[in-house]
Protein: Hypoxanthine phosphoribosyltransferase
Organism: Streptantibioticus cattleyicolor
Amino acid sequence: EKDMGTDLEKVLISKEEIDAKLAELAAEIDKDYAGKDLLIVGVLKGAVMVMADLARALSTPVTMDWMAVSSYGAGTKSSGVVRILKDLDTDIAGKHVLIVEDIIDSGLTLSWLLSNLTSRGPASLRVCTLLRKPEAAKVAIDVTYVGFDIPNEFVVGYGLDYAEKYRNLPFVGTLAPHVYGG
Ligand code: PRP
Ligand code: MN
Ligand code: MG
C-alpha cells in the first residue's frame, strides 16, 4: 500500500471494490455488444486506469483508441472550456463506440465530447464512467454504464489527479481540504 501521507483524507473506494464493479460492468457490456465490433475510447489522462482494467475484464474483443481533452488545468473547478489535445486516430463513422471516463463531475467535458463524436456518424455512442457526482451536474448526460455515484467531494487516485498528482494511487480517495485551500 502506498503512503497516503497527510494530503489524503480517506479511502472512498478500495481497489477491491473497483475490481468487483468493473467485472460487473464488463459483464453487462459483453452482453450488450455480443456479436458487434466495439471501439472503446478512453479520455486521457484520467481514464487510463479504467480503460486498462475494464478492457481486460471484457470477453468481447475490442479495439481501443484515445482522445485527450482537458477542461480542468491545474485547478479543482471545471472551466467548461474543453480543449482537444489529441484527437482519435481512427474514423468512427459506422462504428459502435463506447466512451470510457474516470469521472463525470459537472458533465461539461462529456457533453461537449458527445456532440463532437455524434457529428462523426458512429453506429452507436454510449458512455461508461467509473464515477459520477450527481450533485455537481450542470448538464444532464445519458450514461449507460456507471460504477459509483459519489458525493460532491474532491477525489483523486485511480487515474484522477489534483495538479497532475495522485493518479497512480490504486484506490479512489478524498483529498484533505488543506491541500486545495478548502
Ligand atoms: C477530468 C476527468 C473528466 C472530467 C470531468 O479530466 O478526468 O474527464 O474532468 O469533469 P466535468 O464533468 O466537470 O467536465 P481533466 O479535465 O481534469 O483532465 P485529465 O483527465 O487529464 O485529468
Ligand atoms: Mn479527464
Ligand atoms: Mg484532471
